[in-house]
Amino acid sequence: MPLVCPDGAVVAYAWKRQLAGQAGASAVDRTRLALKALTDQKRRFFPHLDDGLDGQSIESTSKKRCGPQVQMENHQEELSEYKTLSDVLNHLEKEVPNFRVFTYERLDWLKRASSLPSSANVTNMETSNEHNFRSSNKLRLGSLSAVATEKTAVVELLFPSIFKVIVSLHPVGSIDPDSVALFSPDEGGSYIHARGISVCHVFRLIMEHAAMALQYFLGIQAETTLHSLLKWICSYQTLFTRVCSKCGRLLLMDKKSALLLPPVYRPYRQFSSLEISSILPIPSANVGVLILLRLIMLVAF
């Protein structure tokens, strides 16, 4: 049974249309025209069957792409070794400097978020974080019991003076994230959760990218989504200290919001552990500049 093209023509006899009006052509001409017609039809409807020069070009294209793909596959295989929440957080702590991680049950996090003041001073905030950090350290060191680990539903990453990240896990105790949100470190209130929205425009933009990154990592390999997502988010540690790779500026006026914003986009496709090495501790000389930039971001709100 001959295949039918989308335009209604029959593939096996499509060459007849090109022979119309050429009855006087020789057998060689008819054969050449028929072969050309069939080849064109094959390229149009069956491009994966192309051979010859096109096959060579496809092969060369695949060779060009094999480098990043192989690197990404190796990266995913490396991350697949960390199968528990404790393993993921312990490995992340070794690779990324200057951050703190806290774990909560869902109800405990809702209580904590509601108790946080909307504008807390740094001293009080650091004191409360130290208290919670001691309990979370047990999980990172692997000394927490399996029962307590299975109750972990919310993971909080705090980058002092930069931002904090809330990641929701579903099911509880797994390494499967279902939502993520970013906030300013001094934000507080009942809206601080994995599906909440920050009052700061810059973190709202980053959260949009984070949602797309989450779906991308889920599509690549669901087992390593949490690890990949957290490592990608850690690249925002230089949010207020690294200039844009395109324009070379630290702040630029956003036309839509009419606000000065730092570069908020970090590529997540083919993101690997090699890119984590570019995250360096913030020099003490830049702390004042960082705080000033954060104040500029918050004054508008």
- Portion of residues in beta strands equals 5-15%
Continuous helix count: 10
Distance between the termini: 68 Å
Question: What's the count of strands?
Answer: 6
Computed CA radius of gyration, to the nearest angstrom: 28 Å
Shape: elongated
Order of helices and strands: HHHHEHHHEEEHHEEH
Strand order of the largest sheet: 1-2-3-4
Mean pLDDT: 73
Total tally of structural domains: 2
Structural class: alpha+beta
Helical amount among residues, as a percent range? Answer: 40-55%
Structural topology:
Elements: H1 15-19, H2 27-45, H3 53-79, H4 85-95, E1 100-104, H5 106-115, H6 122-140, H7 146-150, E2 154-159, E3 163-169, E4 177-183, H8 201-220, H9 225-234, E5 252-254, E6 259-261, H10 287-299
Antiparallel strand pairs: 1-2, 2-3, 3-4, 5-6
Helix pairs in contact: 8-9
Protein name: Mediator of RNA polymerase II transcription subunit 27-like
Subcellular location: Nucleus
Pfam family, one: Med27
Please tell me about this protein's structure.
By secondary structure, the protein is α+β, with helices and mostly antiparallel strands. The chain has 2 domains: 11-49, no CATH class; 91-299, no CATH class. The protein contains 10 helices and 6 strands, in the order ααααβαααβββααββα. The protein has helices spanning 15-19, 27-45, 53-79, 85-95, 106-115, 122-140, 146-150, 201-220, 225-234, 287-299; strands at residues 100-104, 154-159, 163-169, 177-183, 252-254, 259-261. The strands form 2 sheets. It has a 4-stranded antiparallel beta sheet with strand order 1-2-3-4. A two-stranded antiparallel sheet has the order 5-6. Helix 8 (201-220) packs antiparallel against helix 9. The longest helix has 27 residues, at 53-79. It is elongated and about 90 Å long. It starts with 14 loop residues before the first helix and ends with a helix. The model is unreliable at 51-61, 120-147 and 279-287 (pLDDT under 50).
